[in-house]
Design goal:
The chain is an alpha/beta fold. The protein has helices at 11-22, 36-46, 62-71, 90-98, 110-121, 129-140, 157-167, 172-179, 183-197, 202-211, and strands at 2-7, 27-33, 50-54, 79-84, 102-105. The longest helix is centred in the C-terminal third of the chain and has 15 residues, at 183-197.
Length: 220
């Protein structure tokens, strides 16, 4: 059973998402909150698999709520998925940096929404290649912050190669083909790299790869 927490100040939108989720046999909504502070309290009470969190909310916004969840070791298994009206923007980027596993636009199709919840619950990346490319482009206009002590020296050569390919927007299957290994081995390399770098998910891995200088954005 996938346990979901809904955190959004728009009651009507929460009701719509809940109605969709309640129809699924493998999904349970464990709570609803109208602001980030209430959402944090419910996250600590229920420890859901997925926390669907709006960015712009009263009291505590979605970015700060995400940051607090990511910093709480008791909530290490909670995957935060950001809800936004605007697609990929500066707020979403900051939420990913804060520890979000991915994001969904609020006008997403119902079937895509349910699929995304299940993907996030498995711990897989909820970032399409197009979103990864936007993350990459976000760094083109910023100086690289090398030598940030991210722990890249702890990675094996194959793990470093896998991380670099993740940062280029490749899927696990594409990474496997590039490295001439099985998809399972590719996923193992990525998971071990995330563990060593203390990255919660693929989005954090992409950010670390660029901030550490392992990969440089095109155009540099």
């Amino acid at each position: 059973m996938i346990r979901v927490l809904l955190v959004d100040d728009q009651r009507l939108l929460r009701s719509g998402f809940r109605a969709l989720l309640d129809l699924e046999d493998d999904i349970e909504v464990v709570g609803e909150a109208g602001d980030g502070l209430e959402g944090l309290a419910l996250a600590r009470e229920h420890v859901p698999d997925i926390a669907l969190i709006d960015i712009q909310m009263p009291v505590v916004d979605g970015i700060e709520a995400t940051r607090r969840i990511a910093a709480d070791s008791a909530l290490a298994g909670v995957h935060v998925v950001i809800l936004t009206n605007y697609g990929f923007d500066e707020y979403v980027f900051e939420a990913l940096r804060a520890g979000a596993a991915g994001f969904l636009v609020k006008d997403i199709l119902p079937e895509d929404f349910l699929h995304a919840v299940r993907v996030a619950a498995r711990g897989d990346a909820l970032l399409a290649p197009s979103i990864t490319r936007k993350l990459i482009n976000r760094y083109v206009n910023q100086p690289l912050r090398t030598g940030t002590g991210t722990g890249l020296e702890e990675l094996t050569n194959r793990e470093r190669e896998a991380v670099a390919l993740v940062a280029q927007g490749l899927s696990n299957d594409q990474i496997a083909n590039h490295m001439v290994i099985s998809p399972l081995t590719a996923k193992t390399h990525i998971n071990r790299a995330m563990a060593k770098l203390h990255a919660r998910d693929r989005a954090q891995l992409v950010i670390l790869a660029y901030e550490s200088g392992l990969v440089a954005p095109r155009g540099r």
